Task: structure prediction
Amino acid sequence: MPLDIFLTFFKIGSFTIGGGYAMLPIIQREVVGNKKWLGEEEFLDSIAVTNSLPGPLAINCATFVGYRTAGYAGAAAAALGAVMPSFLIILVIAIFFASFREYPIVDYVFSGIRPAVVALIAYALFKLVKAMGVNLLNISVSIAVLLLILLFNLHPIVTIVACGALGFFLNRKEKKQ
Amino acid sequence: MTALLKLFLAFLKIGAFSFGGGYAVLALIQKEVIENNGWILPKDFIDIVAVAEMTPGPIAVNSSTFVGYRVAGIAGSAIATFAVVLVPITITLIVSVYYNKFKHLKQVNWVIKGIRPAVLGLIAAACIKIAWASIVDIKGIIIALMVFLGIYKLKINPIIAIIASGVLGVIFYGVI
Result:
């Protein structure tokens, strides 16, 4: 069983480009549809929970599914299977990258790609703002975080902890009233 | 402190606070890897993000493997990758074991509600820092605008957009 779990997540990890959200439908197809390790509802629950935890969504989701399917051995097999492909692929690229990078044409290629990366991140931000909704709280908190990091050179972790604490106390107060 | 231990601690921290997906993590990696430890240059970091974007796997994992290799070879890449997933996997495992209790824990929800808008600020900060290092002239602005409009209006696949921007780079910087 753990071997089957490992191979399934290794396969999923090898072929999904585009991060966590691109991986979820494929995990769902394999785990719920093909292997029937989890029911539909249980799978959706697992996403709701893992989404609120730190770490890459796909790897957390794999760990959760692995544990539910085959206990600790299953969790270890799933996590290892999900991490291995990207580790191996990037390792091979990293080994050859420096020598490959010396060609002038590669330099031109990356001069074009770098601004594209900015556009991709800006687009992701734009989509996220649309999904979360523009309201006073969202905008003021995010602008405060932005300014604290850029102008006051604050560590991003400090802003995360501060906002988490703020969320905790504001919501608790609201519940009490 | 040895390089490997430093690498392990930096990526342990990055993994433990990686809320809000791959792009929000970029702000943490920038802080730890570029600003605090000076392991790589801002320009090289963007190349890594571009490579991570085109290869399978989460951005946080991909960039930790890449940076780890840069700092300390194969051992470095293994340690950085292990460190970045260690806390997330441990926490997920604990939650899986106590799932039925955790599900009803509203306090977790309160914290997450606070972190969510912060994620926007983190991504915006990463985006501005990367723009600062990568858009150096008018050609860069043109490429960035073309890619943004391409994925927004024409719904071009991001990987295709990156390949196209590489071709534009050769034309703009090599030919013209």
Q: What stands out?
A: The CA atoms of residues 59 and 140 of chain B lie 23 Å apart. DSSP finds eight helices and no strands in chain B. The longest helix of chain B spans residues 59-97.
